[in-house]
UniProtKB/TrEMBL annotation, chain A:
One of its GO terms (cellular component) is blood microparticle. Gene3D superfamilies: Globins (1.10.490.10). This is Hemoglobin subunit alpha-D. The keyword Amino-acid biosynthesis does not apply. Keywords: Heme, Iron, Metal-binding, Oxygen transport, Transport. It comes from Dryobates pubescens (Downy woodpecker). Belongs to the globin family. Pfam families: Globin. Residues 1-113 form the Globin domain.
TrEMBL record, chain B:
Coiled coil: none annotated. It comes from the Eukaryota. One of its GO terms (cellular component) is haptoglobin-hemoglobin complex. This is Hemoglobin subunit beta. It comes from Dryobates pubescens (Downy woodpecker). Residues 3-147 form the Globin domain. GO terms for biological process: hydrogen peroxide catabolic process.
Length: 113, 147
């Protein structure tokens, strides 16, 4: 969904098959979701739990500008949650998830400069 | 001028036909005030905004949400000339209301989540992409007359 709505994000994946439903998209999406699962389990210590990923995003991936790009992904994630959960994606749940994803983005941006 | 493909126009109007403007408008504004509490600064005279429950039930929030989304409908009726459609509203938001245009982006993203939650499977990737483009264009038009 993110690649569809925000084509500029595809520039970070020139080495991927970005056709709909590709194995690479599925595999990478699963990886990202897995990392978020780890973040949820370590919600009171995001800095430490995501330390490796933070280094990766800062020094290797350099997704730019950091906060903005990660906001785009956060939006797509929330849309998917809302599509799956419908009414259960209540305002309170929405607020908590948005806050969480912002915190994750902040940690991943920590080492940029 | 923004270019809309026939498919994009179709996706916009078909989704809009399914939207209960009063309900979705109220919900979108309520969520803005709940998820980004600092936006409450623009609504000092709205009364009780002390909790999500209070905000959702607040009649002024509901009424204003409906007003905002009704205005959105004007953009949809004038897809080929959104800037002109929102010219006066842009001046208003700058000169009278003093709203940072970043808030238009926030509300746009929230509207998309509200649509997703209501329409679920009917709000597929192409829909999302088209509507993200639409809210972006509306936000841009509302910021256009700022000075």
């Amino acid at each position: 969904r993110m690649f569809c709505a925000h084509p500029q994000t595809k520039t970070y994946f020139p080495h991927f098959d970005l056709s709909k439903g590709s194995d690479q998209i599925r595999g990478h999406g699963k990886k990202v979701a897995g990392a978020l699962g780890t973040a949820v389990k370590n919600i009171d210590n995001l800095s430490q739990a995501l330390s490796e990923l933070s280094n990766l995003h800062a020094y290797n991936l350099r997704v730019d500008p950091p906060h903005f790009a990660l906001q785009i992904l956060a939006q797509s994630l929330q849309v998917v949650l809302a599509v799956h959960m419908g009414k259960e994606y209540s305002p309170e749940v929405h607020a908590a998830v948005d806050k969480f994803l912002s915190a994750v983005a902040a940690v991943l941006s920590e080492k940029y400069r | 001028m923004v270019h809309w493909t026939a498919e994009e126009k179709q996706l916009i109007t078909s989704i809009w036909a399914k939207v209960n403007v009063e309900e979705c408008g109220a919900e979108a504004l309520a969520r803005l005030l709940i998820v980004y509490p600092w936006t409450q600064r623009f609504f000092d005279n709205f009364g009780n905004l002390s909790s999500p429950t209070a905000i959702i039930g607040n009649p002024k929030v509901r009424a204003h949400g409906k007003k905002v989304l009704t205005s959105f409908g004007e953009a949809i009726k004038n897809l080929d000339n959104i800037k002109a459609t929102y010219s006066k509203l842009s001046e208003l938001h700058c000169e009278k209301l003093h709203v940072d245009p970043e808030n238009f982006r926030l509300l746009g993203d929230i509207l998309i989540i509200v649509l997703s939650a209501h329409l679920t499977k009917d709000f597929g990737p192409a829909c999302q992409a088209t509507w993200q483009k639409l809210v972006g264009v509306v936000a841009h038009a509302l910021a256009y007359k700022y000075h």
